[in-house]
Write a structure and sequence with these properties.
Elements: H1 2-14, H2 35-38, E1 45-53, H3 59-69, E2 74-78, H4 79-84, H5 88-94, E3 98-103, H6 114-132, E4 138-139, H7 148-157, E5 160-161, E6 166-167, H8 177-186, E7 193-197, H9 208-224, E8 228-230
Parallel strand pairs: 1-2, 1-7, 1-8, 2-3, 4-5, 6-7
Helix pairs in contact: 3-9, 6-7, 8-9
C-alpha cells in the first residue's frame, strides 16, 4: 500500500496538481471501506454502467442492443460530448436509461483546481438537466480518481460518486467481445457495478464494438445466476446523508492511487 500511495504522490506532483488532499478511494483494495462508492448495491442485482458518451457513432448501437436484450443502464456522460451530440441524452432517457455525470471532459481531476472542478461539474449537471428534464444523481470521475474537490462539488450539487467493481478493459485496441466478457465475468457478483464504454472518444478507435458484443453474454450470465441487470437507480446503493456521508480528508491525506483505473492513451 505504501508503495502505491508513494507512486501516486509522485504522479500527482509531476502532473502539477494544485489539490492538497485528493482521496485514496481510487485504490481498489480500499473501496470496500466505502460500499456506496465502490458501487456495491443489492446482492440480487448488478448495475450496468457506461462511460464517455454520448456519441452518435456508437451510442445508438448500444441503445438498440440494450433494447433487444431488454436491459436498461446508467450512462455517465461527458459535457463536451453532450455538446457535440445534444439530441442523444433525451433519446437515452426516453428509452428508459439513466443519465449521470462523468465530468466536462476526460481530463484527470488531479490536474484541475477545486474552483474549476466545481464549475465544470455544475455546468455538466445543468446541461443534462436542461436537455433531459431530469437532474442527474450520480457522478464518476475520469480514471476513477476521486479528489477532495470532487467530493465537495458533489455535496454542493447533490451528486453521489460511484466507481465500479468489474470492468472489461474494453478501451484497448486488442479487446474483443470475448476478452471483455471474460474480464467482466471474472469479477462479476451480486451487488456489483460493471463499467463499460459506449464511446471510443478516449479509447482505441472502434474499441466500443468489443463492449457492444459482450452485452448479450453478460445479460445471459446474469440470468443464469438469478441476478437482475439494470441501472444504478435499481441497485439500492446506500445514500450518503448528513453525518453519514464520507468524511473529507485532512490536509495530510495522500493522493489517490490510480491503480485499477484506466491509463490515459498517448496524446
Amino acid at each position: 500500500m505504501s508503495r502505491a500511495l508513494a507512486g501516486a504522490s509522485v504522479l500527482a506532483l509531476a502532473a502539477g496538481s494544485v489539490q492538497a488532499a485528493p482521496l485514496v478511494t481510487a485504490v481498489p483494495r480500499l473501496r470496500p471501506l466505502w460500499p456506496q462508492l465502490a458501487g456495491r448495491g443489492a446482492p440480487s442485482h448488478v448495475a450496468l454502467t457506461f462511460d464517455d458518451g454520448p456519441d452518435s457513432a456508437s451510442t445508438p448501437a448500444f441503445l438498440a442492443e440494450l433494447d433487444r436484450i431488454g436491459v436498461q443502464a446508467t450512462f455517465f456522460l461527458l459535457g463536451e460530448m453532450i455538446q457535440r451530440h445534444p439530441r442523444l441524452p433525451r433519446r437515452m432517457v426516453e428509452a428508459g436509461h439513466e443519465i449521470a455525470v462523468h465530468g466536462w471532459d476526460h481530463r484527470n481531476h488531479l490536474r484541475r483546481s477545486p474552483a474549476a472542478t466545481l464549475r465544470q461539474l455544475a455546468h455538466t449537471t445543468d446541461l443534462i438537466a436542461r436537455l433531459t428534464g431530469k437532474r442527474p444523481r450520480y457522478f464518476r470521475p475520469p480514471y476513477g480518481a476521486l479528489t477532495a474537490a470532487d467530493l465537495r462539488a458533489c455535496r454542493r450539487l447533490q451528486l453521489q460518486p460511484v466507481l465500479w467493481t468489474a470492468w472489461g478493459r474494453d478501451w484497448e485496441s486488442t479487446a474483443t467481445p470475448a476478452t471483455v466478457l471474460h474480464r467482466v465475468l471474472r469479477d462479476l457478483h451480486g451487488g456489483g457495478t460493471v463499467l463499460l464504454h459506449d464511446s471510443d472518444c478516449t479509447s482505441a478507435p472502434g474499441s466500443w464494438r468489443s463492449a457492444l458484443g459482450a452485452l448479450p453474454g453478460l445479460a445471459a450470465r446474469c440470468r443464469e445466476l438469478g441476478l437482475g441487470l439494470g441501472p444504478l437507480a435499481e441497485h439500492r446503493l446506500p445514500t450518503p446523508a448528513g453525518k453519514s456521508r464520507m468524511p473529507l480528508p485532512g490536509p495530510g491525506t495522500p493522493v489517490a492511487d490510480l491503480g485499477g483505473s484506466r491509463p490515459p492513451l498517448p496524446g
